[in-house]
Inverse folding.
């Protein structure tokens, strides 16, 4: 049994049970999220394990993983920061705020910070245009960003990482139970 | 006209996302009444008679869409399109977080009307928290007997499942969404067959937008006549307008369709910083810009926004003030569509790539007049030639800005670099 | 009416706008269109103007009233610009390049940009140059929808979309089965193959349609030749058998044709001594010697005909033996493969051949594949089965190995080798238990249902489980699937026949179809997957001791009269010998001279049979294209021609007689086999008037009623499926539509009898593993042809498949050399550890002579039809240290 099956046996079964018998391929996105959480990112072994569980061809699964932007096929920081600078956010200054984010995280867009804690990505609209500038961090919304708010958050994340270095938070995308409650 | 909360009821009722609060305010009563006392056809007839139109963008009559499903073919599916990805759109985000049960009840009523026993709520991958909320809501409603097997002692079963996307705008297109839900690449299918005939797993399927379905419980409760009395004759009901960009108070505003443009802008505090309006994009990044001149006094419904040269779509108003450089706007939308092109057909895959190159030069102040001409050429190569509408969506901003705000392009072609959206005076 | 460029087209003549345009003779460019797969509209090259809108012709339904324009200035401009976009992202060759040139696109519209420059030439046959790829995805579609393989995917999206078979993976390391469908479909040259590249650089090629000479599927080939060499092969798109599809052997394994090892002169041993060397001789010397020796041993001669040769050649050989040498001692390798099928099906139904067409597979809703690794042995049929399953048909597989089909089956009954009869009876029992037998059909067309029901009760799945190793619940599930089928289709292979109870197993397969009313309709029936290209034909032509051409009974006076009239000689009166009996008679001295046409019995028949016979025979003649292990031991070797080098016909497993056409001349010195046989017949007093194989077929039509309506003229195109009773008859796709030749079929009752091989020589204690032998995809039988092609770069030796648990217990690691020992002999191979075989079972192929696979197999034969039991030998496996 692979890392995914040993880590999330119940979640896998629950994911497949959401779809009619014989339609287990429908669970591929859920399983890729789980695999991402279990393996850290979608390694070839992760892809193979998902395809084995779902009786799909690995090439197909790899194609699916490559098509969607939330699947990461390479190592990334513990906090994946997805910053929106799409049109509506940019109209409210998201492009101007981007250098602030980069400076505070210690990495430019597309890069991972030297301490391995942050990966910064510029992404397309996240459906929170009324709270620009905004971002998702491991898929949790962080809205109405200001330099002060960002300072506080970065300090909090660094403290968490220092307190428990081996336990990197998965890139959100773990099982639903690991996710936080809805933001206020 | 002011706000009217048919679907954003949580704005008036605190904690409406909680099942007990929702039920205390009449929640799930309509589903129970329908399942225990009404024929499926009656539900369908009420929705048909109400004139409810799809809130996802196309504005297609919802009851009619349901009626295309063959009666005697089973299983059938309701799929909720909660893949809200159009830049400038954030209404379903609020609805599912704050009023999830009304969406679920609406979907279950739709399922009952067409004879489906399963509902899939497809959420864009970034809606992880929304999925959590929806899954918890479904679980609680099911445990309380509002959903699940043999509802209220009848033979009718309705199971609701939440299913994730993973980051792809194109999955908002209903056939791409179905492919994604089946575990394939999220790329559009050929139509026909339409989903009503062969949708999810090749079974009859209705794909409805989240906001559309949230309208269904009130319609079933209060009747078609009540609904038709709101809004305009051809565009009845309320609509959630997402206001973003250069407004004082960006956010969602639910108002009756047909509300004049100025009234809506007033709710959001008007154009920010006391500036004048240059234009809006009324349906997010995929809609042609509408200049301020055409907006004066414009009643906001599907027909009249179309008559003004754009589309109401999902009513995602990206507001652009007088300082906005339209080349920069088109560059932003072009980057978006180039990023989201699925790559299946060459006009879109290659056309959006070249559009992006041209705009990149123009916004960097390295463009030429020939580049401006090339935009028209590439647009012609994309227009009407692609597999799905994404190609044409990509052309809306470039073509409309070029036509209406040529001066911005001339400046760019003369070597002026855009400054983060601020046009040069 | 639809109007295309001003020309009217009837609306019912067209499904799509593209059909309508083509019907009207209008040229519409297409790149990703391929008739074998659903149109997808990816490439956008086929846009035409329909009522003022540009729409893709391939995916737009045609309907009455459309006005279509295919050649407008707007379309010309669009096509040119589309090509410019294509040239900006790729450097296409082939059809895509031709379209670019035709539209005037020259790659100057957009500046060139970084392209996917991945190239791969790791595979022996396939070649990749992704810089040419136009991303139309046709390769993905044909791989998935035609071959049912999933080698390719498109990765990335937007301008980053690219063809992928795995990041950083050499193509040779993928699951590709080298069917070549992608290369044949690719419009850009991004996917190519070695032959195609050779063909591109060779001028003046011509194309000849012929029938593949490998397996019994009978695929139609379009062979391109420069006049001296086979350059490149494609499947014939219009052929009903394969619709353009081919396998790795049919498409690529043709380099044996001009191989330097080909025999180009007769060889003889001078001085009548077996220890004298084989030396070159003139044709007259060799033919005279053969004629003299066969004459000398009259009454003690026998012949093995060849399933690799044409119908006409098989007909001539048995005619020579019967009319010229006055004996029925003629048999063919059907004996050692589907002889039990012919015997079993004849006994139950009255006809010993497939009841349906291969195309029927698409109409079946439940398919039962038993004892056949179809994707390996009959790849194009295997692909058809996979296609059907991918489209929703249910699949039941009976096989001791987890074959490719077993892996996708709804129920895989992984039985212990040798327990077929017990398993088939328990399936029948389960059908009765579930009350799923078709009572109306049983009453109308069979007798003995009640008796069968009582009989099979003793094989209740729970009891049979001890014999078969198949869980009872699985048997019941399979029975439920089968019993609820509307169109139950059976395909079976040598795993059913090559057993002690082979013929009886086939009878029980008939039972399973009779019980569910599974005969006489489209998509419904019992269909042996015939092994060799013309094994059906060799049997049809009468190359068996007990039946004449067209399965005529020599005991029937009317038959004797007919043959005597046409042949001008009386029929022999002896009983005739089957192959195993010939060997035994030879060992006893009752057969002295043996004529072998194109068969390598030394490698493929059990050595326990062959060796004593060869040692005792006075005279052995082998007619061959290579110096096979059998030819090495002959007294005279006559150089024949391969199927690319002569005219004639083959009959495939669905009874379809198809033309074989000469593509190239035989090597200098070799002769077409039918000509050699005519020479020998003349030299033994039976001169033949035939100037061409078509004349032979005309005589076959005279003597054999099932072929009465067959002539070469009528075989153009897709050929004819026998019976063809007269010259106007269209052939017969489905047998037994109304009645069985036997009338009401008597449901057979067969008791399971363990093969005596299990008790031989120390039994399970000494030989704890059960060995099954068979083939691999890349090679064909004794391998004389495929081993002389690049197939050896794909598979270079035989491998012993063994379960990892067994291997561990024996101290055998993957790839290690092992000795396979039975009570009869031993073989050597490399171990391949795989869970495809169950613990206690192992598998060995027989393509390489150095392996000695058939030194291990036993002398046990099917107790009805004398077919050797290749599929069960108790062995032990020892590592070679």
């Amino acid at each position: 049994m692979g890392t995914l099956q040993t880590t999330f046996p119940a979640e896998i079964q629950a994911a497949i049970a959401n779809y009619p018998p014989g339609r287990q391929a429908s669970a591929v996105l859920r399983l890729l999220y789980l695999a991402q959480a279990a393996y850290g990112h979608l390694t070839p072994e992760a892809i193979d394990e998902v395809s084995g569980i779902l009786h799909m061809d690995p090439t197909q699964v790899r194609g699916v993983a490559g098509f969607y932007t939330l699947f990461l096929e390479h190592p990334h920081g513990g906090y994946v920061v997805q910053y929106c600078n799409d049109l509506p956010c940019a109209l409210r200054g998201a492009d101007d705020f981007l250098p602030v984010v980069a400076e505070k995280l210690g990495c430019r867009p597309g890069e991972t910070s030297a301490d391995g804690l942050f990966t910064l990505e510029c992404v397309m609209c996240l459906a929170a245009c009324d709270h620009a500038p905004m971002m998702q961090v491991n898929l949790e919304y962080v809205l109405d960003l200001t330099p002060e708010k960002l300072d506080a958050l970065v300090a909090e994340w660094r403290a968490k990482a220092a307190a428990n270095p081996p336990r990197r938070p998965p890139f959100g995308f773990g099982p639903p139970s690991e996710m936080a409650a809805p933001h206020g | 006209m002011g706000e009217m909360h048919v679907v954003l009821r949580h704005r008036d009722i605190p904690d409406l996302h909680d099942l007990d609060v929702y039920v205390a305010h009449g929640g799930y009563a309509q589903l129970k009444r329908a399942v225990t006392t009404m024929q499926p056809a009656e539900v369908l007839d009420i929705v048909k008679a109400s004139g409810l139109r799809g809130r996802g963008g196309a504005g297609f009559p919802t009851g009619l869409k349901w009626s295309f499903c063959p009666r005697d073919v089973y299983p059938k599916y309701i799929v909720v399109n909660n893949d809200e990805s159009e830049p400038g759109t954030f209404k379903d985000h609020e609805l599912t977080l704050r009023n999830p049960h009304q969406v679920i009840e609406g979907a279950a009523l739709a399922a009952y009307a067409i004879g489906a026993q399963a509902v899939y709520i497809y959420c864009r991958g970034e809606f992880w928290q929304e999925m959590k909320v929806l899954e918890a809501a479904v679980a609680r409603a099911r445990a309380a007997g509002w959903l699940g097997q043999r509802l209220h002692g009848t033979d009718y079963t309705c199971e609701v499942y939440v299913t994730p996307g993973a980051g792809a705008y194109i999955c908002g297109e209903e056939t791409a969404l179905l492919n994604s839900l089946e575990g394939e690449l999220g790329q559009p299918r050929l139509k026909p067959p339409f989903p009503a005939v062969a949708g999810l797993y090749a079974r009859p399927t209705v794909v409805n937008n989240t906001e559309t379905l949230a309208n269904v419980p009130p319609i079933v409760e209060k009747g078609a006549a009540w609904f038709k009395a709101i809004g305009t004759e051809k565009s009845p009901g309320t609509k959630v307008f997402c206001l973003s960009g250069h407004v004082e108070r960006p956010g969602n505003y639910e108002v009756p369709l047909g509300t004049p443009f100025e009234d809506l802008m007033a709710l959001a505090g008007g154009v920010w910083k006391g500036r004048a309006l240059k234009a809006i994009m009324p349906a997010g990044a995929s809609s042609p810009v509408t200049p301020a001149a055409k907006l004066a006094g414009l009643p906001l419904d599907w027909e009249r926004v179309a008559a003004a040269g754009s589309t109401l779509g999902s009513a995602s108003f990206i507001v652009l003030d007088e300082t906005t450089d339209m080349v920069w706007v088109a560059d932003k939308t072009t980057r978006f569509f180039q990023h989201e092109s699925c790559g299946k057909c060459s006009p879109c895959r290659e056309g959006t790539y070249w559009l992006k190159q041209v705009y990149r030069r123009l916004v960097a102040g390295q463009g030429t007049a020939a580049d401006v001409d090339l935009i028209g050429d590439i647009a012609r190569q994309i227009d009407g030639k692609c597999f799905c509408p994404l190609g044409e969506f990509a052309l809306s901003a470039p073509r409309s800005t070029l036509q209406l705000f040529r001066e911005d392009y001339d400046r760019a072609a003369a070597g002026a670099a855009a400054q983060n959206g601020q046009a040069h005076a | 009416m639809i109007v295309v460029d001003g020309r009217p087209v009837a609306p019912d003549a067209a499904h799509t706008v593209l059909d309508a345009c083509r019907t009207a003779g209008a040229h519409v460019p297409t790149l990703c269109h391929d008739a074998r797969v659903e149109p997808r509209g990816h490439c956008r090259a086929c846009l035409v103007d329909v009522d003022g809108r540009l729409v893709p012709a391939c995916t737009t339904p045609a309907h009455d009233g459309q006005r279509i324009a295919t050649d407008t200035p707007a379309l010309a401009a669009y096509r040119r610009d589309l090509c410019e976009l294509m040239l900006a992202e790729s450097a296409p060759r082939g059809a895509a390049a031709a379209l670019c040139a035709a539209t005037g696109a020259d790659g100057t519209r957009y500046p060139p940009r970084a392209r996917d420059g991945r190239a791969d030439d790791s595979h022996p046959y396939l070649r990749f140059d992704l810089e040419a790829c136009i991303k139309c995805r046709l390769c993905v579609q044909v791989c998935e929808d035609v071959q049912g393989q999933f080698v390719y995917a498109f990765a990335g999206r937007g301008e980053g979309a690219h063809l992928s078979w795995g990041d950083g993976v050499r193509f040779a390391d993928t699951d590709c089965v080298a069917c070549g469908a992608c290369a044949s479909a690719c419009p850009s040259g991004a996917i190519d193959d070695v032959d195609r590249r050779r063909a591109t650089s060779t001028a003046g090629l011509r194309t000849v349609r012929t029938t593949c000479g490998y397996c019994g599927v009978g695929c139609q080939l379009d062979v391109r030749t420069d006049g001296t060499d086979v350059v490149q092969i494609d499947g014939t798109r219009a052929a009903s058998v394969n619709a353009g599809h081919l396998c790795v052997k049919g498409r690529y394994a043709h380099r044996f044709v001009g191989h330097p090892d080909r025999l180009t002169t007769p060889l003889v041993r001078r001085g009548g001594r077996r220890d004298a060397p084989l030396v070159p001789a003139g044709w007259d010397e060799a033919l005279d010697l053969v004629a003299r020796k066969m004459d000398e041993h009259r009454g003690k001669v026998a012949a093995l005909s060849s399933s690799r040769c044409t119908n006409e050649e098989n007909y001539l050989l048995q005619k020579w033996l019967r009319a010229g040498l006055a004996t029925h001692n003629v048999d063919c390798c059907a004996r050692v493969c589907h002889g039990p099928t012919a015997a079993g099906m004849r006994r139950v139904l009255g006809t010993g051949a497939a009841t349906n067409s291969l195309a029927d597979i698409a109409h079946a809703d439940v398919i039962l594949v038993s004892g056949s690794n179809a994707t390996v042995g009959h790849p194009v049929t295997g692909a058809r089965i996979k296609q059907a399953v991918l489209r929703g048909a249910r699949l039941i597989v009976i096989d001791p190995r987890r074959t490719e089909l077993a892996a996708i089956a709804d129920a895989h009954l992984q039985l212990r080798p040798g327990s077929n009869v017990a398993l088939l009876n328990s399936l029948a029992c389960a059908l009765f238990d579930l009350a799923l037998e078709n009572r109306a059909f049983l009453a109308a067309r069979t007798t003995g249902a009640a008796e069968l029901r009582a009989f099979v009760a003793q094989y209740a799945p729970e009891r049979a489980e001890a014999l078969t190793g198949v869980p009872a619940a699985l048997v019941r599930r399979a029975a439920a699937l089968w019993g609820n089928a509307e169109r139950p289709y059976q395909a079976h292979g040598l795993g059913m026949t090559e057993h002690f109870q082979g013929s009886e197993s086939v009878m029980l397969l008939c039972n399973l179809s009779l019980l569910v009313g599974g005969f006489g309709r489209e998509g419904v029936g019992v269909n042996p997957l015939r092994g060799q290209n013309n094994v059906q034909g060799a049997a049809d032509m009468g190359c068996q001791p007990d039946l004449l051409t067209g399965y005529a009974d020599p005991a029937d006076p009317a038959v004797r009269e007919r043959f005597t009239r046409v042949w001008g000689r009386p029929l022999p009166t002896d009983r005739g010998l089957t192959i195993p009996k010939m060997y035994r008679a030879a060992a006893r001295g009752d057969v002295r001279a043996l004529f072998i046409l194109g068969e390598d019995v030394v490698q493929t028949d059990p050595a326990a049979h062959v060796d004593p016979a060869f040692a005792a025979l006075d005279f052995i003649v082998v007619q061959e294209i290579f110096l096979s292990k059998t030819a090495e031991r002959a007294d005279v070797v006559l150089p024949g021609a391969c199927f690319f080098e002569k005219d004639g016909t083959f009959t495939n497993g669905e009874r379809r007689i198809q033309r074989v056409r000469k593509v190239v001349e035989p090597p200098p010195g070799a002769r077409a086999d039918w000509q050699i046989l005519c020479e020998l017949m003349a030299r033994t007093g039976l001169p033949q008037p035939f100037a061409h194989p078509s004349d032979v077929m005309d005589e076959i039509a005279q003597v054999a009623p099932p072929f009465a309506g067959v002539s070469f003229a009528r075989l153009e195109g897709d050929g004819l499926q026998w019976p063809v009773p007269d010259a106007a008859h269209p052939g017969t796709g489905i047998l037994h539509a109304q009645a069985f030749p036997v009338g009401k079929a008597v449901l057979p009752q067969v008791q399971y009898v363990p093969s005596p091989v299990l008790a031989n020589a120390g039994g399970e204690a000494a030989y704890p593993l059960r060995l099954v032998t068979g083939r691999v995809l890349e090679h064909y039988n004794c391998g004389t042809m495929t081993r002389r092609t690049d197939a050896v770069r794909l598979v270079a030796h035989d491998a012993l498949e063994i379960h990892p648990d067994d291997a561990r217990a024996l101290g055998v690691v993957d790839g290690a050399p092992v000795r396979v020992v039975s009570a009869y002999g031993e073989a050597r191979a490399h171990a391949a550890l795989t869970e495809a075989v169950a613990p206690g079972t192992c598998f060995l192929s027989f393509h390489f002579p150095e392996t000695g696979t058939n030194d291990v197999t036993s002398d046990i034969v099917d107790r009805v039809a004398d077919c050797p039991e290749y599929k069960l030998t108790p062995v032990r496996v020892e590592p070679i240290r």
Q: What stands out?
A: The mean pLDDT of chain B is 94. The first helix of chain B runs from residue 19 to 24.
